Amino acid sequence: MEPRDSQNNFLAQSLEGSPQRRQSGTPRKPAYPISSGLRHYLTTHSREHILPVTYNDLEQFSAAASLYDEDDNDTLWQTVIYDHVSIKRISEGLKHIYAIIKAGGDLSVIHHLYVDRIDYCVFGNSRPFRIRIVNSRNDNQDYFYVKKADASRLYGLELEHLLSPNRMHFVTHGNTLIEEHIVGLPGDMFIDSWLNNNKQLKAIRIAKELIKFNERCFVRLLGDMRPYNFIVDITPDFEGTQIRIRAMDFDQQSYDGRKNFYLPQFFKENNPLVGFCVTHIDAKTAHQYQSEERHLIARRMKTSRQRIKALLETMSKDPIAPDENLRQLRKELADHYQDKAFLRRRSMGGLVRQSLQRIYESTNA
User: Fold this and answer.
1) Does the N-terminal or the C-terminal CB of the chain have fewer CB atoms within 10 Å?
2) Residue 364 phi/psi, 5° resolution?
3) Distance (Å, whole) CA 253 – CA 223
């Protein structure tokens, strides 16, 4: 009997159901500490830097005001204010951090920059600070984020860097994580404003990218890809406009116990996007795109073999999910793939390793 692999069910099952949204009052996913093994990996691969400003420093603000967008809607962010003694040190430190993630620490690039605004969000699990940097010569602006370091998020960022077409620029120090801003249109805005209202976008290209994104998330077990957790990168090309869907939130890396939680096609919030795609593509073409993505992942594994091996060895030793989630997910994956090898895995990292091993072996990379 043929395995019930994800490459066989995108069109057939995409609109049948979705994981339930976290109910009000349900505890947030806990932040998992960085183990000594993960810290060693981060240091070895130049992800660890001594930072002049930490997350704890930014928490010492003295006041905050709600931030509204140009349509006077509450953004759920608050602009924070610091006392006059602290703000100079914090601003200089944040510019230094910007130089680290953008220019390898070359401080000569930041003399004409200034910190225009520091925003804080209590909505997300990481309770991030968003730093707005402005170039005084041309008023160009850029952003980066300061977050609480969480092992789940770090594994997610590193897996994205190694297995996807996207490079992730981030550094850590103690319990602080610095992430570069990911440029693109938030998925919910794309669905509301672009999906059916822009003739420059070719439907088949949107469908192709959704299928590839769906496959990447499932293979490396990145969950909770609702529209506000991914962006759509729209790039004009000489023959039409290209798009790429990419994750921008990695909090739910290998945490949940439900298989469908790792398939963006099953979230009801994505139904407009999925429904749009299934009307423009057939099963054979969908299968082709999934196969292409798996081969690309296998090639990336081959070119970064030692680094991926080191990451998965560390991840396999780290408890980054409750035991009941692990037991549920390994059973559902074993049933899905009809592969009992998943049942022998003893950690979420082990499940990711088994999933990637299947890809590598099946594509003969």
Assistant:
1) N
2) 55, 40
3) 6
C-beta of residue 259 within 8 angstroms of C-beta of residue 339: no
Hey, what amino acid is at 33? Answer: P
Helix (H, G, I), strand (E, B) or coil at 43: helix
pLDDT value at residue 363: 78
The answer on pLDDT for 152 being more than 80 is: yes
**Whether 212 contacts 244, CB under 8 Å:** no
Q: Comparing C-alpha atoms, which of 217, 183, 223 is closest to residue 293?
A: 217
Report field, pTM of the whole predicted structure over 0.90:
yes
* Cα 131 to Cα 114: distance, rounded to the nearest angstrom: 10
Instruction: Give CA–CA dist 364/216, Å, rounded.
Output: 18
**How would you write 76-123 as a 3-class SS string?**
EEEEEECCHHHHHHHHHHHHHHHHHHHHCCCHHHCCCEEEEEEEEECC
Beta bridge partners of 120: 78, 129
Q: What is the per-residue pLDDT across 345-355, written as a single tens digit (0 to 9) for each?
A: 999 999 999 99
Structure token digits, residue 240: 């039409």
Beta strands in 254-333 (DSSP E): none
Half-sphere exposure of 286 (CA within 13 A, CB side): 24
d(CA 35, CA 40) in angstroms, rounded, equals 9
What pairing do the DSSP bridges indicate for beta strands 113-121 and 129-135? antiparallel
pLDDT in tens, 209-248: 999 999 999 999 999 999 999 999 998 887 778 899 999 9
Enumerate residues 6+ apart whose C-beta is below 8 A from 150.
31, 32, 125, 126, 177, 251
Residue 236, beta-bridge partner list: 241
123 has a pLDDT exceeding 80: no
Residues found in the chain = 365
Q: Are 350 and 84 in contact (CB under 8 A)?
A: no
- The Cα 363–Cα 232 span in angstroms is 28
Q: Which residues of 274-307 are buried (b: 16+ CB within 10 A; e: fewer)?
A: bebbbeebeeeebbebbeebbebbbebbeeeeeb
Q: Which residue has the tokens 């809607």?
A: 73
Residue 184: both structure tokens together:
């693109």
**Domain parsing of the chain, residue ranges:** 6-16+183-363, 36-148
